[in-house]
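In response to reviewer comment 3 from the previous cycle, which asked for concrete evidence that the modeling workflow produces usable outputs, we include below a single protein chain processed end to end. The sequence was submitted unchanged, and the resulting structure tokens are shown without manual editing.
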Amino acid sequence: MEIFQLILCIVGVVVFSSFVSRFIPKVSTPLVQIVMGAAVTWLPGFPETTLNPELFMVLFIAPLLYLEAHEIDKSQLLKTLKLSLSLAIGLAIATMVAVGVVVHAVWPSVSLAAALALGAALGPTDAVAVSSLGKEASLSLRQLGVLKGESLFNDASGIVGFQFAIAAAITGEFAVGHAAGEFVLSFIGGTLYGLAMGLVANWLFETVRSLGWETTTTRILMELFLPFMLYLTAEELHVSGILAVVASGLFVRFDRTGIGPNVARTNIVSSSVWGVLSFSLNGAVFILLGMQLPRAMSTSWDDPGVSNALLISVILLVSLVVVVMRFLWMAGMLRIARDVTTGKRRPMTPERWRSAAVMTFGGPKGTITLSLMFTIPFSMSWGVPFPMRDELIFIASGVIVVTLLLANFMLPLLAPNRDKLAPEMTEITIEILRKTVEELTGRVDDENRRAVLMVIESYTKRITRLKQRVGERDPQGLERLQIDALHWEKDYIKGLLAELKMHPLDDAAEQDMRVEACERMMDDIMNTLRHASSTPGSGHAVSQIRGRMRAFERRAENLGRRISSKIRRTTPLIREDEMFAHSRLLQLDVMEHVVDRLYEEMGRDTYSTEHCSALILDYRRAEAALKSRPNMGGSAKAITQAEEIKRESYGIELGVIQDMLEAGDITRAQAKALRRNVFVMSVDADSSI
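The workflow returned the following structure tokens.
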């Protein structure tokens, strides 16, 4: 039961951290999750957490590295492979030696072998943290390629070096030749095994699909099962499970070929499942890290026999050694690297020194370091307790925090994340619409085919119009005109309602029909205006609540009036087909009113003439589409279904925007503007069904 409570707690904190990080954009999400993970451990009744390093590696690190390897830019990785491998192997070994010598010299109570084990554990960078750096800083494709490539390959060198250093600390013997041989076997063996299994997986996926045996469920389960199977079997063969997972992830291609709704649905579901899994595991990794840090550090901090000042000093010294070693290594590699075109070594310019600093702070330590430190045995081979075990874990935990803080605050200073230029918003919007169409295509079945195709057609028109408007000098001006046109629609309907109340019709049923049609359209317009408004602050939130309350009151009043009329049998119950026909006739009247108003505005200086003419053309298109339907009442069911799908499509658009924000493809400011644009475009005349 405690394990189940722990899982629920972690999932809850992951969800909550995604909301909290929105309000503190200057602090990276991993740091937020570490703090929240540490905070929940102080809650009363919180279950005791013990990190099993082996379980942690197979449950979290293996699938995350597999997905990271699969999604990495392969061409960029090949371009930076030499530099990535030099960091993953050369720098990891150099850091291991430097940290070991310094810690042993400063604190002789720590044996040289144990200090080398600490240095080996501090070699790997955190792949999960590295993947989030592009969202907080403007890193070039080369820099991201180097950092991600390093994080994929350096785990093996760190793990192997740590294991042999610990073996030397326990037994008092260290065979350099044997260790080097084991390292080569683990490195090459894991890579070859991963490549071989990647070949098998590619053949299996293609064969199952070609034979028609594939279903969405089996395909997703096969993809999810692969990284866990790879890691466990590689470890059983005594080769690097991490490298097997990485090599296979680089080589396996999730076959996206084929046609038909089943293949499209499988591809969409697969991407969605991996997206959810990646987000959940990423968050869980840092939350677990935060949960472990207090326990890892409290034992040494509360020990009266250990100087806390010495502990802090060693943490700062080791952090300095790690950072300086990394900076010197990066600068040296950049200096000796030859230009691709000229073949000559380039001098170190200020820009290249800054690049070295960016990649220095872009390699924070994380969960693999802490999980390795927890594998330090409690006793030596002859039975005595392992000396300084708690202190070594404390130092590693402190260095993790320091490097994460440096990455969070130094990277934005060295490589500020500049907002993309406004003209790119049109291309981004077109990409969002395309992804929405792909999602809708995967939802087609025999019952909703006509309705979905109607919605897809409206999205196709929006994409075409956006392509025509590429190069628009004042896109905000058109948006303002669209919102003002909504206000004109609202005022016109208000006037109709006032007229109906002052001069009711003789036919009570017709009166109720017209009033409810006006109120329904008014609710739709007000809902769109509330979402499209850019006014910040609590006043806007209060206005939204009041608007929703008024809409709820109107609907409750209409429902009460219907029930009362039915009970008294004074008027027949309103049929939806009749209501649909009245609503469409009202919409035609409203469109004609707005078009007349736009013609008037074209002779004034309030709005651009081109914007007015473009919006008139949109309204005329929608008006012609409505009039071309020979039987509005008969098509009410299909149109109603299409409108429901249209509302779902807005949710899909918002989900795509959030996915692009989390992937670092767009900035927070762009995401906010795009969310507003979803609601503004929803009232665009030719986007209505």
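Residues 424-687 form one domain. We consider this sufficient to address the reviewer's concern, and the full set will be provided in the supplementary archive.
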